[in-house]
Amino acid sequence: MAIGKELRVNERIRVSPVRLIGDAGEQLGVVPVDVALTQAREAGLDLVEVAPTASPPVCKLMDYGKFKYQQRKRDQQAKHRHAGEMKAVQLGPRTEEHDLQFKLRKAREFLARGQRVQIYVRFRGAQMRHVELGDQLLRRCVEALADVAKMEESIKMEARRMSVTLGLKPGAAAPKPAAPPSEAPATGTAP
Asked: Nearest Cα to 61, choosing from 38, 78, 83, 84?
């Protein structure tokens, strides 16, 4: 149930009889709406019409304020989950080899977690005269990650930024980050 969809609550429910469901999910049967309202008041809950198109309409005993709060919380968490699906890796057209290898390791980690990666080269000032350097750098990145990633979007130029989007290759096992070596058991006597 979406929170934007207003549900009829308590006295706003005009259809009688209704199929009543208790707050624990148990079926209480088909009852007149005034009996259902009385049961809701006695339990200190609200009567909420959850399926208005059913025959008879289905109503549930619940704390409507708490329900709206939990629904809003679920919606916010869903937004956060979607926001983290794509990670960005920023490079410059003159990125050195060590920095490039570090960024590629990070991209592999993101891919291992199932996230998509957008690698982009940002050009500043006079660097715009040499966009071919950015293109070469992005092609090197795609080749270096070819064992675990595939191009989802080709290399494209937008304003002062050239980018490519990569996703985990189907069937490619997600690479595991290297585990630190475990300590060997001590031999000999302790002091």
From this structure: 38
